[in-house]
């Protein structure tokens, strides 16, 4: 581990604009530092600056960035109105990690691509310009949508997939002030600069996550994985589906572990609304979702798996 | 008295003794220390002025080290030395080698092979400097082969042949000819490899995490070029080995070299990634299995061929067909293993080498033959148990396979299974059942142990044997307490110190029966002295709760017969019985799985194992061994796979996040049935090994249950969702 300076922020103002790497739960950052995949010169610990409350905002909810994943998942209002979020959080990591991990930190977790994590293979995300060893390598868990020649890594998390489906927003404070970023725009596609996972600017701090008014309906998080716990998703589907009689009245969908960001496609949501749920409709939705999907060899199966996982979720959510 | 075990001990001594502790499900005496965190493991010893060493792995696949840029690193904070020498290990020693493995780290044999050790005042400084160390290589990777299929394989041993397999296959009423693959596996012990080395003049003390101290002393001394009498190894607690700590490895030799150079203690703890990358793998296998039978289901053709791999120069080859030699009938036979030399980390013993991967394929083939012949898979197995080892004519010592199949089937409810797949659907899940036999060779190994009955009536057992989490402390104490008629709480067991008598070491499932027999023989010698003092024949001596008596002789406190501590050493060596009688262990697995009709995820719903392995020394630790084995089988069936990059041979998934061993959520309640038996041919205590039996075939039962559930027959392990997806039936179609 590279030696680093450590300081603890007394308030948010100290963190905003700081050149130091921010650390909260550290559940991903510390691993990366031990492997020297991350080698910050300085850490600023923000765990004592507040931002740890969940408060109502009209029909919506504001979740402080430093609320622990466990507390968020257990919150009565979230369990009642956005159970999708609770389910996604509880599908990830382990109780110990969820107790430490924070809402803001979880959004910033990095890919688990083996070539990124090994600290030595060519990797444009870790060392821009060195190439991408995952292409032509072991890429069973890599992206099938939105990848680029520079990077085929996936965003590995669960929580952000649920937040993307729910159309949450991310509140940040930076040197230029406060801004609100749609969750669906928070993570970015790799393009020719995979070193940046998200749209945060230097010195900008995540202060909260906002959930808009709940739409009701059935909330499902389906995480397909090799083992029953403590494994990243092969594919995940976050869905909030509201029925009106025998027709789909509202559909919010997001997909995990298939792209560099939680994958959303409004066309698919629109296609479902107003329709009667049938296996044929689910197939059409998958066709649209996956029309640009491309496998890398080992992960070709994900195209089929997304299709089938989506069908399972829609069938369960609609009672078909 | 000869130490070799040549005639079976049929006295049933441990059934005639009175203490009543043998076989009982007693807690491990060291258990509270382990769960309270006060059992000290290798890396945890506090030595004054201890420096910290971190190994550096090669960034090329194969070649030579040209130059190590020591100076830059030596200038970093806290750095004390950079070592790279002719004596440091390129590879870990294979089990029971007893001599140095490949040395000289100026040569690189495989990716991430240790090539240097950086030592600093703190672990963090050493890690940082190790990462920063620049090394110039003569990269010869261009000539290397990384895939076993790309190399001309050589026979690993003479094939076993009998009759005419091809013709028997042609003539068979029913036959299967199947190709299987199994991937590489890692031992993935919880405790990483670690060593603290400290010199006192010419004498080296090394705290290590090791399975077989007698061999390890010889390996370490040979590696360092010193007399074994100057090497003192301490390994009282070992956090799992599973084969990976059978031989001395990189960290121990490097720590010893650096400690000598620096004249201060040096600790080297391998990272999880380094353990995965540089110790040992189980070879991947390709297997072809041909089975043919008559209309009565009796095997006439039995072919089992395998391709495995290792590094050039390594003799070890995964003995894939080991159980196929003796398990089933079939007069026309071909058993053959070939080995490819490739550039990947060393292949060696990982729990149940051979049977772990050979049996899981064979047991799927048997399931397919049963279906082809229209015979229940349990019945097909029962019909094919030979009277003697095919081709050899050797008799079996004890074999409770029929009882295991019957007892397992009854407990599991096998009669509820539908012979046709896709017969049971619950919501999104297809439910199915599978069966497999278990079989594993049994080995008696040379062992010595010292037992003392103190003048005040305490029992002390001493041997350099290890307890790698298996229960050695418990069972060795139970043998001695039983034989000497003392309560278990007056029994102390000292293990894991190379200055103690040479035990068998923990490996090959032989530790309990071998070292246990040495303890037994030492106790017999003590009993003989006590009997003499009491005035009766040794076999007539009765001992219980500290009292001694015999028929017609009044009970007396045993301490009355002792004027001083009574110490005897017991020794045993394998003898003629190993050759004359086949002494294997057997069992049966029954498994119920659920396969998700949409996603192809498989989850174990329940699993039953029934096992016969001679005398049960401790019903709790034996049961735990069986469960642990079955969990390994589940991992092998569903999730575990070392993923190597085909372009340079490096291991991509090198930690517990990415190499998927089963977690708690994967394992339902496991039922274990222990079938008591006595095998006097196997050892004087009539026990055999159980440390590996629980794996051997377990994955086959899972695979067969998957087929029974959803109708997809796979031959490539592990059976992850991606492999099932393509052939799964339409999830929306109603159940058949």
Computed CA radius of gyration of chain B, to the nearest angstrom: 27 Å
Percent helix range of chain B: 10-25%
Largest beta-sheet details of chain B? 7 strands, mixed
The fourth-level CATH homologous superfamily of one domain in chain A is: CO dehydrogenase flavoprotein, C-terminal domain
- What are the low-pLDDT stretches of chain B, counting only 5+ consecutive residues below 50? none
Number of helices of chain A: 13
Any idea what the shape of chain B is? Answer: globular
Structural class by helix and strand composition of chain A? alpha+beta
Radius of gyration of CA atoms of chain A, rounded to a whole number: 19 Å
Oligomerization state of this entry? heterodimer
CATH topology of one domain in chain A: Enolase-like, domain 1
**What is the architecture of one domain in chain A at the second tier of CATH?**
2-Layer Sandwich
Can you count the beta strands of chain B?
A: 29
Number of helices of chain B: 17
User: CATH superfamily membership of the largest domain in chain B, which one?
Assistant: Aldehyde oxidase/xanthine dehydrogenase, molybdopterin binding domain
The largest beta-sheet of chain B arranges its strands as 4-6-2-14-11-12-13
Q: Main sheet of chain A, how many strands, which sense, barrel?
A: 5 strands, antiparallel
- Ends of chain B: how far apart? 68 Å
CATH architecture of the largest domain in chain B: 2-Layer Sandwich
Distance between the termini of chain A: 53 Å
């Amino acid at each position: 581990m590279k030696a680093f300076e450590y300081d603890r922020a007394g308030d948010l103002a100290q963190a905003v604009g700081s050149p130091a790497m921010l650390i909260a739960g550290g559940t991903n950052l510390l691993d990366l530092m031990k492997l020297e995949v991350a080698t910050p010169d300085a850490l600023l610990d923000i765990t004592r600056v507040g931002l740890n409350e969940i408060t109502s905002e009209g029909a919506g909810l504001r979740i402080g960035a430093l609320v622990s994943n466990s507390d968020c998942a257990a919150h009565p209002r979230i369990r009642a109105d956005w159970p999708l979020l609770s389910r996604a959080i509880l599908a990830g990591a382990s109780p110990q990690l969820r107790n430490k991990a924070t809402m803001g930190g979880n959004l910033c977790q990095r890919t688990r691509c083996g070539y990124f994590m090994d600290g030595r293979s060519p990797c444009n995300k870790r060392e821009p310009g060195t190439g991408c060893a995952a292409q032509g390598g072991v890429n069973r868990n890599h992206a099938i949508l939105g990848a680029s020649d520079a990077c085929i890594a996936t965003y590995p998390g669960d929580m952000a997939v649920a937040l993307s489906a729910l159309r949450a927003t991310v509140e940040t404070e930076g040197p230029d002030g406060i801004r609100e970023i749609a969750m669906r725009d928070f993570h970015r596609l790799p393009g020719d600069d995979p070193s940046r996972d998200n749209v945060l600017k230097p010195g900008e701090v995540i202060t909260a996550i906002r959930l808009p008014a709940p739409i009701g309906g059935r909330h499902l998080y389906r995480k397909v994985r090799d083992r029953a716990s403590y494994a990243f998703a092969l594919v995940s589907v976050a869905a909030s589906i509201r029925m009106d009689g025998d027709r789909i009245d509202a559909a919010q969908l997001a997909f995990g572990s298939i792209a560099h960001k939680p994958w959303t496609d409004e066309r698919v949501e629109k296609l479902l609304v107003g329709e009667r749920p049938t296996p044929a409709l689910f197939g059409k939705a998958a066709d649209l979702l996956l029309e640009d999907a491309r496998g890398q060899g080992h992960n070709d199966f994900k195209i089929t798996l997304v299709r089938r996982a989506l069908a399972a979720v829609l069938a369960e959510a609609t009672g078909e | 008295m000869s130490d070799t075990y040549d005639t079976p001990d049929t006295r049933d001594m441990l059934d005639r003794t009175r203490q009543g502790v043998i076989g009982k499900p007693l807690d491990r005496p060291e258990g509270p220390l382990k769960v309270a965190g006060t059992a000290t493991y290798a890396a945890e010893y506090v030595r004054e002025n201890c420096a910290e060493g971190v190994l550096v792995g090669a960034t090329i696949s194969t070649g030579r080290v040209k130059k190590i840029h020591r100076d830059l690193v030596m200038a970093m904070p806290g750095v004390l030395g950079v070592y790279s020498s002719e004596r440091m290990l390129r590879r870990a020693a294979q089990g029971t080698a007893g001599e140095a493995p490949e040395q000289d780290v100026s040569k690189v044999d495989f990716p991430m092979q240790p090539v240097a050790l950086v030592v600093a005042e703190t672990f963090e400084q050493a890690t940082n400097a190790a990462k920063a160390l620049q090394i110039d290589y003569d990269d010869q990777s261009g000539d290397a082969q990384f895939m076993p299929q790309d190399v001309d394989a050589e026979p690993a041993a003479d094939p076993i042949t009998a009759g005419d397999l091809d013709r028997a296959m042609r003539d068979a009423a029913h036959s299967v000819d199947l190709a299987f693959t199994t991937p590489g596996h890692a031992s993935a012990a919880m405790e990483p490899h670690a060593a603290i080395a400290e010199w006192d003049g010419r004498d080296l003390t090394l705290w290590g995490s090791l399975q077989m101290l007698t061999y390890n002393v010889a390996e370490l001394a040979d590696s360092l070029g010193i007399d074994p009498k100057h090497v003192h190894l301490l390994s009282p607690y070992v956090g799992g080995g599973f084969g990976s700590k059978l031989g001395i490895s990189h960290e121990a030799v490097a720590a010893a070299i650096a400690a000598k150079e620096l004249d201060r203690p040096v600790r080297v703890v391998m990272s999880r990634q380094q353990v995965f990358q540089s110790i040992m793998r189980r070879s991947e296998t390709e297997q072809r299995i041909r089975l043919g039978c008559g209309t009565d289901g009796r095997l006439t053709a039995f072919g089992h061929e395998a391709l495995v791999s290792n590094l050039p120069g390594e003799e070890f080859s995964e003995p894939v067909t080991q159980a196929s030699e003796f398990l089933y009938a079939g007069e026309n036979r071909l058993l053959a293993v070939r080995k490819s030399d490739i550039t990947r980390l060393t292949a060696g013993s990982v729990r149940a080498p051979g049977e772990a991967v050979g049996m899981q394929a064979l047991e799927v083939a048997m399931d397919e033959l049963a279906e082809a012949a229209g015979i229940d898979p349990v019945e097909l197995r029962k019909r094919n148990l030979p009277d003697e080892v095919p081709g050899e004519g050797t008799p079996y010592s004890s074999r409770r396979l029929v009882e295991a199949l019957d007892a397992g089937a009854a407990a599991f409810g096998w009669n509820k299974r539908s012979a046709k797949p896709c017969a049971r659907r619950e919501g999104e899940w297809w439910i199915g059942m599978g069966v497999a036999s278990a079989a594993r060779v049994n080995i008696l190994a040379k062992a010595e142990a010292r037992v003392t009955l103190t003048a005040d009536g305490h029992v002390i057992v001493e041997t350099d044997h290890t307890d790698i989490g298996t229960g050695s402390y418990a069972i060795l104490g139970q043998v001695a307490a039983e034989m000497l008629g003392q309560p278990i709480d007056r029994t102390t067991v000292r293990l894991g110190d190379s200055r103690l008598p040479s035990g068998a070491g923990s490996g090959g499932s032989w530790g309990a029966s071998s070292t246990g027999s040495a303890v037994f023989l030492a106790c017999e010698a003590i009993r003989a002295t006590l009997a003499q003092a009491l005035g009766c024949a040794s076999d007539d001596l009765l001992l219980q709760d500290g009292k001694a008596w015999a028929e017609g002789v009044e009970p007396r406190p045993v301490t009355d017969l002792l004027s001083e501590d009574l110490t005897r050493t017991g020794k045993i060596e394998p003898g003629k019985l190993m050759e004359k009688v086949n002494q294997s262990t057997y069992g049966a697995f029954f498994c119920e799985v659920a396969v998700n009709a949409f996603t192809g995820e498989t989850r174990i719903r329940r699993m039953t194992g029934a096992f016969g392995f001679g005398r049960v020394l401790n019903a709790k630790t034996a049961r735990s061994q069986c469960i642990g084995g079955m969990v390994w089988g589940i991992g092998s069936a569903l999730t575990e796979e070392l993923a190597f990059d085909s372009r340079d041979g490096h291991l991509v998934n090198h930690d517990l996040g990415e190499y998927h061993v089963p977690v708690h959520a994967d394992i339902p309640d496991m039922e274990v049935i222990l079938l008591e038996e006595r095998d006097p041919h196997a050892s004087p205590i009539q026990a055999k090994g159980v440390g590996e039996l629980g794996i051997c075939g377990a994955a086959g039962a899972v695979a067969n249950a998957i087929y029974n559930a959803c109708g997809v027959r796979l031959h490539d392990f592990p059976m992850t969702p991606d492999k099932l997806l393509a052939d799964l039936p339409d999830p929306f179609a109603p159940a058949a």
